[in-house]
Amino acid sequence: MPQKKTPFTPLICLVLIAISLNGAAQKRKIMGFAPLDDTVTQEKQGTFLLPLLYFTPDTRWAAGAAGVYYFKISPKNDNEKETRTNFVQFLADYTQNRQTDVWASWNVFTRNENFLLKGDIRFRNFPDRFYGIGNQTSKDNVEKYEYNLLQIKTMFLKQIQHDFFIGIDYELEKEYQFQLNPNGQLARGNIKGYKGGIGSAIGLVSILDTRDNIINASRGKLIELSSYYFAKQLGSSFHFLNCNGLYQQYWQIKPKHILAFQSKLKLSFGEVPFLDMSTLGNDDILRGYPKNRFRDHHFAASQVEYRFPLFWRLGATTFAGIGDVFHSPDDIAFNRLKYSVGGGLRLLVNPAERLNIRLDYAHGKEGGYFYFMVGEAF
Fold this sequence. Notes:
single chain; 378 residues; mainly beta; Porin; 6% helix
């Protein structure tokens, strides 16, 4: 079971990261990278290297390295616009729970933002916890299992109107080498996908993105609608349909005071393997629950967050959210809804792109947990 940590433990980590970042900044100068500026517009491209150290209730301590190359594409003439920040990032880490994660992703606007290319490649060896299916499972019924994951996603979108994109996505994933608790629910063989398999899907995606900064927005909105068809004709082991909705909006109430809102919806129909079901609990939406604490076919949740400065490069935030997983509308009840409330600190490590390190404490129905991560929750 995830163990709660005393408040000073992540604070020690914050100090260590700050020291590491100071050393990384000096290394940037030695290697010839551009120094950090205080505005997004002054720095068109750069490389950001980060010794990675973080903590979540599901990983405990984790260490590794992350690198980001970010850039903007300048217009050729007055009829074109400069793109928003593009990025290609790489992350590799190993956790105290013996979890390995190697991940590369990209978000690239072509010239004048005519096209948007997104995708990721990932390998994970991930000892995890399974609590059962449904929104009323007990923490006492937890069982450990382990598996490997290979995943490739590639998305190609065309700009239809200003900031509005439509396109296709292809997703391929393989889950294999499962190690199960012989006395657990998964080993009984009644839960779909308990031995893994291949997921192969074609997706349709539409995105409206008016955010001023995709790393840490201060104004604008993101609306993303997508559907993925996993079919045996595409090589998938399972046949099901997945529909997703995401809405985010950001308001700058006054300089550096940001109100952020997020709502997520995921609906799955057909023979859905348990690893592809909707889940509740993570370091992003509905913080305060272990990752995958609840899972079922569908998920809906919303959260609001207020971000504000303190002094120097330190900031703070408060947040609250509510939502749940469910199999049918009859499973939704007010007394079952999961809530999350909390707050946190922010350390600005790259003013040019507003990249923060965050330390959050979130409290839910089953207690509270600390999260120490790079980047905002949304």
